[in-house]
Design brief:
The structure holds two protein chains of two kinds. By secondary structure, chain A is an alpha/beta fold. In chain A, 36% of the residues lie in helices and 16% in strands. Chain A folds into three domains: 298 residues, 3-Layer(bba) Sandwich (FAD/NAD(P)-binding domain); 138 residues, Flavocytochrome C3, Chain A, domain 1, CATH 3.90.700.10; 119 residues, Up-down Bundle (Methane Monooxygenase Hydroxylase, Chain G, domain 1). By secondary structure, chain B is α+β, with helices and mostly antiparallel strands. Classes of the chains: A alpha/beta, B alpha+beta. At the A-B interface, helix 3, helix 4, helix 10, helix 13 and helix 15 of A face helix 1, helix 2 and helix 4 of B.
Chain lengths: 627, 247
Amino acid sequence: MGNIIMLDISDIRRLKFDVLVIGAGGAGLSAAIAASQEKGIKVGLVCKSLLGKAHTVMAEGGMAAALGNVDDRDDWKIHFRDTMRGGKMLNNWKMAEIHAKDAPARVRELEHWGAVFDRTKNGLINQRNFGGHRYPRLAHVGDRTGLEMIRTLQDHGIHQGIDIHMECTALDITKDKSDRVSGIVCMYRETGEFIIFETKSLIFATGGAGKSWEVTSNSWEYTGDGYGMAYEAGAELIDMEFNQFHPTGMVWPPSVKGILVTEGVRGEGGIMKNSEGKRFMFDYIPEKFANETADTEEEAARWLKGDKDARRPPELLTRDVVARAINTEVKAGRGSEHGGAYLDIATQRNSEDIKKKLPSMYHQFKVLAELDITKQAMEVGPTCHYFMGGIKVDAETSMTTVEGLFACGEAAGGMHGANRLGGNSLSDLLVFGNLSGKKAVEYSKGLKSYPKINDEDIKHIIKKATSILNREKGNNPYIIHEDLQKNMQYNVGIIRTKKEITDGINTIDDLKSQFENVKAPGSSQFNPGWHEALALRNLLISSEAVSKSALLREESRGAHTREDFPDERKEWLKYNIINKKGKNGKMETIKQNRNEPDPELKRIANSAIEELDNEVKKDHNKLTSEV
Amino acid sequence: MKERDFKIYRGDNERGELVNYKCKVTEGMVVLDVIHRIQADKANDLACRWNCKAGKCGSCSIEINGKPRLACMTRMNEFNEEEKIVITPLKSFPVLKDIVSDVSWNYEQNKKIIPFSPSKKDKEKDFVMMQKDVDRVQHFRKCIECYLCQNMCHVLRDNEGKEKFSGPRYMTRLASLEMHPMDKADRIADIKDVHGSGMCNITRCCTEVCPEEIQITDDAIIPLKERVIDRFYDPIMIFFRKIFGKN
């Protein structure tokens, strides 16, 4: 790492762990809980905010799991097929299989830890409809499922002997001579003090980088810290061109633009209309989904009443399809007053149902937009929501391409392919949080001693962080961030072209050089300007990876739409795009061949739905007769 | 676009002052937007906590003109055009910096609560619970842990009170566990001795400031007080327990 730095680090506190988790949302808490179940294993948990405030708390709609409580025709096979089709077959097959199989057990476990889900008439966990899911599958609590999940994990987790460090920002990973993870340097936001965590294994549950865009449902925390740190440590990032724009974010007033409006509104029967009052989603049904989607308002209405023979309304098509449809309507001059589309639940359900099923939406619109959703239509438009891509992991162990570094949740890539289904995120957090926790324990137990940390690496990390404060003058981090957001919004947004992406990459290069000279005024104590500057490096790495991957993938698939290559191209199904730090220190963006899937999984994903329904029926009958 | 006057507390627990800022206010802005604008343009190091910006995470709790509020859910058009807006940290907890308070005491209280404890037998199968039997519990579980109720509770205003009472937030959590149909733990003695249910004298200040409109006093604290009274102060119940055992 270059020259020897004169810096005394002997006073800096050091702590040792067998497993250290960075991030305390659904994935991080699940991972820490899973790891702590092993006797004699010392587990640490580091989070940027206070415990219980991570992004999971904002999740609304629910968690997808084929429990079959509402419709017993559901099964892991159907969930798996839905997930693969939603992801346009680019998903990591094995991860999608593990997810669909394990989700029901994880949801039950959450209930046993104290989560109180809405109930069916028989007193079981209730499940609601959601986009892309064939059967009602989302276990939920009104429209505050994320809060229920994080609070349950938090209240369970604090009794598992986990050492929790709140409001602590991770800066960079250290590795030993044989390139294994040896620790991580962090900083307490409150005091600005540094701390060195020595650890045998490290789990990144650091979420995505949605703060790269201007219109986003993500909070300040979503700055791609995991992507940036993993990249710097030599890990591969995968599928970074797939950024989900959730179709329904608030569009008015300006200060709330981007705040999420749950897909649950459509799941509960909400319909989309343009300025002419037309229910436009009927015009945007993709051929592949035509067989499974209602083509008249009459059929959609029957479905809402519970007619099992009726097909699903087109408002419940996958998020990529709905987001693009709104975009097209607005561009054609049929947008709502403030440039979105109308989302109407008021004419579909009575006021009491709406308040019971969507209480936080009711409250959110009432306070922030002065609008009563039981009487008026909402105005909504696409908002950056989720990274399908992320740190590349092994499906069965969650280990990244760096030895000892694991990743789970939104920080990891692969599970969701080109587009994530709503509700598959919360279940992903539980399934792969749990898996990575267990696998990290196995790995750590296999190490006889702690991998060594080189003091020069620590000094280098600290020097880089403090130079932002110590510089005489320099660029305002808030302005660089705003410029980056505008750039990504305009050049690498929902609809992309070669020209715009190239402009976007050039602007990122320029912002990177501005970042070299970033300055945060004030002291190291709870200094948001400094925190913003530290996050910028990771935002820039994430944005560069997104843009370069988006440029390379010359097709439109799922959430990645290229105006100059408007169709899915079969050839591109063979590859994932990988970003990695090259030997010259610059980002390399390459095509990587995907593995051939297990033939059985391939068969299930490509089955006609009637065939698979019949197969599942036989499976279930067989199970019942065996019992 | 109108420029308006703000006073924001800058400093720490020992010393600080109200500093004047001006900020342009546009349609739909909330107080948190104002803080962010000032932070980006004029005071990069102004400390403030926030996350979701939609009233779901409970991070941005502050006092606005002396009232405990969520900054993200307080619309600027609530205030008169000429009214000066004063933004200060929560009163009941130590100030870390500017408008950020040290709320770690609350996390310590949570750890003292006996966690959810279903029986082994019940855990072997799916829970069967009717919606009407969990409505009340779900009502409590809406809590976003913003600690506005803790801040407002006059018992918790001084350190002496904090030693005796866990506060309304944790009375609500205790109630959610006590009323959970599958929970088997006995927390009644703890509610009295560890969590100090007797300290609350039902002024309902906590309920008034709850952004989730949880009926903290009537639905959580009073029923818990009643359970404590039944157990420890009702002579007939004590007599019955002596004869028939604890349950």
